[in-house]
Amino acid sequence: MALIGKPVPVETDERGRPRRFFWRRWHRVRCVLDEWREAGAWWEGEGERWVVRLLTEEGGVFELERAAGSARWVLYKVYD
């Protein structure tokens, strides 16, 4: 597993879930394995964020996150 923490371009479906994203190349999402909301470090002024764990068509597992009220996605983790 590698922590990345970099913004990435993401195309979403009609419900706002990632359909594909770009990290080194475009990855098409096969399915959402899990999703959850995290409160963030509220004591440091961080707000809630939405995290999704994805399985890509190539068999890779990734976690993307998006802060509440933001359109910007961040690639958080890549599982080996």
How would the blueprint of this fold be written?
Blueprint (H helix, E strand, L loop, with lengths): L1 E7 L1 E3 L5 E5 L3 E13 L10 E8 L4 E7 L5 E7 L1
Antiparallel strand pairs: 1-7, 2-3, 3-4, 4-5, 5-6, 6-7
Characterization of the model:
This protein has 80 residues and is mainly beta. It has one domain (2-79). The protein is 0% helix and 62% strand. It contains no helices and seven strands. It has strands spanning 2-8, 10-12, 18-22, 26-38, 49-56, 61-67, 73-79. Strands 1-7-6-5-4-3-2 form a seven-stranded antiparallel sheet, with no helix packed on it. The radius of gyration is 12 Å and the shape is globular. 15% of the residues are buried.
Task: Please give a quick description of this structure.
This protein has 80 residues and is an all-beta fold. It has strands at 2-8, 10-12, 18-22, 26-38, 49-56, 61-67, 73-79. The chain has one domain (2-79).
